[in-house]
Amino acid sequence: MAPLKIKKGSSSHSAYNLRDPNAEVVERHTLAVVVENEPGVLARVIGLFSGRGYNIESLTVAEVDHTGHRSRITIVTVGTPHIIEQIQAQLGRIIPVHEVHDLTVEGSSVERELGLFKVAGTGEKRVEALRLADIFRANVVDSTLENFVFEITGTPEKIDAFAELMRPLGLQEVARTGVAALSRGSKTQA
Description:
By secondary structure, this protein is of the alpha+beta class. The chain folds into 2 domains: 99 residues, ACT domain (Alpha-Beta Plaits, 2-Layer Sandwich); 72 residues, ACT-like. Chain A, domain 2 (Alpha-Beta Plaits, 2-Layer Sandwich), CATH 3.30.70.1150. 27% of the residues lie in helices and 41% in strands. The strands form 2 sheets. Strands 1, 2, 3, 4 and 5 form a 5-stranded antiparallel β-sheet that branches. Strands 6, 7, 8, 9 and 10 form a 5-stranded antiparallel β-sheet that branches. A hairpin with a 4-residue loop joins strand 3 and strand 4. It is elongated.
C-alpha cells in the first residue's frame, strides 16, 4: 500500500491536503504480538484499538507455543509513524503481552493470506473465471453447474486483484483469513 498523506491535526483524507508540506505520512504496518494464551487477552488488545480510534485492517490469532501457552496476534493497521509508536507502546503495557514487533520496520517479511471466493457463472463467464483462476494459481475447491468456490493464497494485494477480476464474472461471496506474517531470514519472534 502506498503511503497516504494527511494534514497534521486533521482526520480528513482530502485531496487538498496532499500538497501540505507539514503533512504526515500514513503508512500500513504489520505488527506481531506474542501474548499469554488465556481468556480475555484478544478482547484487551482489540479494546486498545477501538478505545483510541485506531483501525485494524486485518487480524489473525493462533496458539504458537502449546507448552508455553503463548499465542501470536498479527495485526495490520495504518497510521502516522507517531501513531504506530503509540500503538506499540500501549500494546507493550498490557500485562499478558510478552513481545511486540513491527515487522514493517524490523526488516523484510513474508505476508500471506488465504481467500475463498464463490463465483457464479455459466458459458463464457465460467470459462473466463477458470482461466483467471489458473493464472492466479487459485484452486477450485467446490464446483456445481452454477458456481465455483476458489481457494487462493498470496499477498493481500494478490487477493485484492483476484477479487476485482472476479467481480464482473459473478463474484457472490468472499471469506478471507487476514494476514499471517513472519520476518525473513534468521530473525525470529517467539
